[in-house]
């Protein structure tokens, strides 16, 4: 190959496993919800539906679609019912939605949702900013939501934000996080996603929190991790968690995201960056990286700005990526 010639195949990492890692990691895709909720402009519902279809076509088996919050609070997700009606659901794929309260649950059930998530906080400051109530008050609000959803046979995921730091309160003590996490799971939730909402975690902190949760009876089989990349630590933190046995990792295609209620929060860990690392470790994800990159390139064009994902930027010049989406969506 000459210095000016292009590779003829889509680049992939050389798989070199590390001892003690799981054979498979499930990627919990949050781009359509946690990613698009932070966009300045409202993305048309047909674009959102096509994004979900393309993500599923790329191999994602869990795609968090939207949130049933009050439209005035998050106008970018005001079209939740319309979006769910526009999605062609595929057998074997999970399409969870976020619900903040019983009214949100009513709307979700009416739309045929079969899996939900609730969104708590380890700190009172963020609970007030995001939910307008304290941690204790928010747990009281979630209790009937979880009970009703469970009675309907719906799995309930619990997000716990500000697990590693809070923009108002600073450092968050590990015992404080463990206490709130335990109370959330005692409501009957099936999985807990640990959120580094403002991206301040480092690997040692991740390991210490996972170990403390394990000592409290919350093993890694019930945990997921959700890292933001504010200080460039998301991949390092993910590897630390996977080495500790975590097998569910949240990510957003193209590195979309942030948090409208915590302005210091930047984008989520990019799904493409995560998949490149996992595949390089010999870990199966079931995801077609070329199709995923093609999807993020397509979405970036609709958003009018380049993807912040380093893997997308590095791989987007490949001719394979530009045409990698499922043909049924062209």
What is the number of E strands? Answer: 7
**Proportion of β residues?**
5-15%
Radius of gyration: 19 Å
Tally of helical runs: 13
Q: What summary fits the major beta sheet? A: 5 strands, parallel
Distance between the termini: 33 Å
What proportion of the residues is helical, as a percent range? 25-40%
Q: Outline, from the CA principal axes?
A: globular
Average of per-residue pLDDT values = 91
User: What would you call the structural class?
Assistant: alpha/beta
Task: Please explain how this structure is put together.
- The protein has 330 residues and is α/β, with parallel strands linked by helices.
- The chain has 13 helices and 7 strands.
- It has helices at 31-35, 45-57, 80-86, 102-110, 124-131, 135-151, 174-186, 203-215, 234-243, 271-280, 289-303, 310-315, 319-322, and strands at 26-29, 97-98, 116-121, 156-161, 191-196, 223-227, 248-251.
- The strands form 2 sheets. Strands 2-3-4-5-6 form a 5-stranded parallel sheet.
- Helix 8 links the parallel strand 5 and strand 6.
- It is globular and about 55 Å long.
